[in-house]
Design brief:
Structural class of chain A: mainly alpha
CATH class of one domain in chain A: Mainly Alpha
Oligomer: homotetramer
Largest sheet of chain A: none
Helix content of chain A: over 70%
Distance between the termini of chain A: 45 Å
Largest interface: A-B, 43 and 47 residues
Number of helices of chain A: 12
Shape of chain A: globular
DNA sequence: CATGAATGAGGCTTCATTCAT
DNA sequence: TATGAATGAAGCCTCATTCAT
C-alpha cells in the first residue's frame, strides 16, 4: 500500500481526473496488465501521450494505484456494512459474500480489476505486487474466520489460516460460476440492463446459499 | 477440440517436432499468451521463423494445439489410473486429486500451461478458447460427480453440476496454496531438486486431506 | 561571451537563484548536454517548470551561461593567484597547472562542467559554442606563453601559438591520467572523502612534475 | 573485443550490409552516442525500423561493433606499415603519427568515430566500454614506447607507462589543432575536395614535426 | 518445404517548450 | 511574475506475420 500518484494528478480538475480514472479503469478491467495499452487510454480519454507521465511515474505505478484504491474501497465497504451481531457463522458468512457481490454490482469495473489480480501472478513486470494483494485478500478472510472461531462458531479442529484461504478463494468462484451459467462475462452480466438489479441479486443469493450449503452439510450424509 | 496443425507439422522428423514442441511449451508455460514470443521460440529451438507458419496458421492455433494436447494427456492419465472399485466417495476424490498432482510432478510445464489457462480469460485475441477449456475441465469433474452420485455415494439433494464445478475449481487451489506456503511458484516447487519427490507428494497429500476434510465435515459441528 | 539571462533571473532572491544554479550545475556536470534534463532540474530544485523560461530563453542559453560563468571564475582565480615574479618558466608553468587543479578541488562541479566542454564538440544543437570556449581556453594559455617568451624564458624558435595550444590541451590530460590511475572518475577522485586533500594535491603535484619534466628534458638525451 | 552482430547481419548481401554500415558509421561519426538516432539511420539507409534489431541486439551493440571494427582496422593498418628498421626513436614516432593521419585520410568516418570515443566517457549507457577502448589505445602506444626503450632509444629515467599515455593523447591533438587552424572540423578538412591530398599530408607532416620538435628539444634551452 | 530477412505498427517513456491561469 | 499541466514529437525496442528465394 504505497503507490502514490504525483502531485500533478491531484491538481487536476475533478472532472478531468475522473475522466482519466474512468478510462484507465476500463482499460485495466478489460485487459490484463500486459495487454492494457497506454496508447488506447490516452486516445479514449483524449489526453496527450505525455500526460500520463505527469500523473504517474509509469504504467506499473498507475496500475498499482488503481488496484490499491479499489481494494481499499471494497474492504471499507464490506467492513462498514457487516452486521454487528450475527446469530451464527453462516449468517455472517452469507453477509460477507453478499456484500462482496453488492460491491461488484455497484462497481463493476473495480470489481473486474480486482478479479483480474489473481490472473496476473506470472507477470514479472509487476513483481510480487499481485501476490501481495492476493495475500492481503486472504488475510482479510482469515481474520474474519479467526473472529468466528474466537466466538466458538466453528469446529475447533480447523486450521484457521487454511480455512480462511479456502473460503476466500472460494468466494471468488462466484463470478466464474455466473459466467458459466450465463455464457457471458461476469462484467457483462452485471452491466446487462435487461436484467433488473433485484433479479441479479436474487440469483447470486441463490448461488451463495448453495456454496454455504456445501460447507454446512458437506458432500455426504 | 478442433485446433489442427498443418500436415507439414506431422511430416517433420520426430526429433525436430519434439524439439519444437518442448521449446514452445517452455515459452507458454513461462509467459502468458500475450507475452510469449514466437521470436524467442525460434531462437531457442533453432528453427526458421517462417517454419512456425508452415506448421500452424498463427500464434493462436499453436497455443491452442499445445493446450488441447496437454488437456487430453492429463485427462487420459487420470482416467486411466483411477481406482476401479473405490470403497467410498472420498477415497475416489482423494485419488482424483492425487492423480492431478502426480501428473503435475511428472509434467511440470504442461501443468503450468494448463494452470495459466485460467489467467487468459480476458485475452480477447484468444476469444472464447480459454473459457471452453475451463468448461471442459469442469465437465470432466461433473462427470465424475455424476458417476459418484449414480453409485449413491453422495447426498441426494446436491446440484451435481454445481458441485462438479466447485470441486474442480477447488482442486485448482492446491497450487495456489503451495505457493502461499512456500513463497515460491508452484512450478519452482515442483522443479526444486532439493526436496525429494516423496516429500513433495506427502506435503500435497496432507493438503488434499484437509481439503477433503472440509467437504466431509463442513465448517461447523 | 554573450549569453545573458533575462532580467527576471536577476530579480530572484539570492537564495532561490543559488538553489537553481546549484541544481543546474549538478545536472550539467553529471550529464552531457543532450542527456541533461530540464525536467530533472526543476524537480530537484523544486521550482516551476515554466520558470526556467522566465530566466533563460532555452536550454542552450542556460547551459552557455553556466559554462561562461565557470570559465570566467576559473580564469579569474588563476590569474589572481599566479606568482608575480617567477624565477623561471617552469616555476610559472608549475604554478599555473597547480592553480588549475586547486580550482578543481575547490569547485568540483564547475571543473567537471568545463571538462565536459571538450566532449560536446559534435552536439550540433550547441553550434560552435563548445569550440569557442575551447579556443578561449587555448588563447589564455597562449597569452601566458607569449608573456613567458617576452621575458626571454623560452626557446626563441618556438611557435608560440602552437605551443600554447599544446600546453593547454596537455594540462587537460591530468584528469584523464588520474582516472587511468585510480580507475575512477576525476570527479569521484576529487570528492573522495577518504583521501585527505593534501594527499590529492601531492599526487597531482607529482604528475605535474612529470609533465614538466617531459617538456624540460625531452624524451631523449 | 567481443561485440558480435547476429548471424543475420552476415547473411545480408554485401551491397546491403555496406550500405547499412556506411549509414551507421556516418551517424555515429556525426553525432555522439546519445544523439545518434536509429530512426535517422533507418530513414537514410532506407530499411525497416525493425531491421536493425535483426542485425544487432541493440544500439549499444551496434555502436560497439562499429568502434571495435574501426579500432582493429586502424591498429592493423599501422602495425603493418611501421618501418622495420628505424634509425632512431623520432623517426619511428614520426612514422607512427604519420600512419595515424594517413589512416584518417583514407577512412575519415572511422577516424572521426574513434576520435569521438574519448568524448563518450561519461555516457553511463555505454558503461566502461569507452574507457576500455581508450586504455587499449594507450596501451598500444605504451608498448611502442617500451619497445623504443628496450632498444635504448629513450632517456632511461622515463616512466614508460606515463610517457606512452602522454604521447598517445598527444597524437590525438593533431585533429584538434587542424580544426583550430582551419576553423572547420577535422572531418571537413579531410573531406575537403578543394585541397589536394598531398597538401593535406604536407600540412599535417609539418604539425607532426613541430610536435616532435617539442619533445626532442623541450621548451627551453 | 524451409528459410530468414523485411516489415511497420505498436509498445512504454522522456523530452523541451508553451501557454492559460 | 510564477505556475505547472499540456503537448506531441521523438526516443529505443519487440512483435507477429509475410514472402521472395
Amino acid at each position: 500500500m504505497k503507490s502514490v500518484p504525483k502531485q500533478t494528478f491531484y491538481n487536476l480538475s475533478e472532472e478531468k481526473r475522473q475522466r482519466f480514472l474512468k478510462t484507465t479503469l476500463e482499460e485495466f478491467a478489460l485487459y490484463d496488465y500486459n495487454s492494457a495499452s497506454l496508447n488506447r487510454i490516452v486516445d479514449v480519454a483524449g489526453i496527450a501521450k505525455g500526460s500520463i507521465y505527469q500523473y504517474f511515474d509509469n504504467k506499473k505505478e498507475l496500475y498499482q494505484f488503481l488496484v490499491e484504491t479499489a481494494v481499499r474501497e471494497k474492504f471499507t465497504y464490506i467492513v462498514y456494512n457487516l452486521p454487528d451481531y450475527p446469530s451464527d457463522f453462516y449468517e455472517l458468512l452469507n453477509s460477507l459474500l453478499l456484500l462482496n457481490v453488492k460491491f461488484d454490482l455497484k462497481n463493476p469495473l473495480k470489481s473486474k480489476l480486482l478479479f483480474n489480480i489473481f490472473t496476473e501472478k506470472n507477470t514479472d513486470l509487476l513483481g510480487s505486487f499481485p501476490n501481495s494483494i492476493a495475500y492481503l485478500s486472504d488475510e482479510f478472510m482469515t481474520e474474519f474466520i479467526k473472529y468466528a472461531a474466537a466466538n466458538d462458531l466453528l469446529r475447533s479442529e480447523l486450521d484457521l489460516e487454511f480455512t480462511g484461504f479456502i473460503i476466500n478463494r472460494f468466494s471468488q468462484l462466484i463470478p466464474d460460476y455466473i459466467e458459466k451459467q450465463h455464457g457471458s462475462t461476469y462484467l457483462e452480466f452485471i452491466l446487462d440492463d435487461s436484467i433488473p438489479e433485484s433479479c441479479k441479486l436474487l440469483e447470486i443469493q441463490h448461488i451463495i446459499a448453495r456454496f454455504i450449503d456445501l460447507f454446512r452439510l458437506g458432500l455426504t450424509y
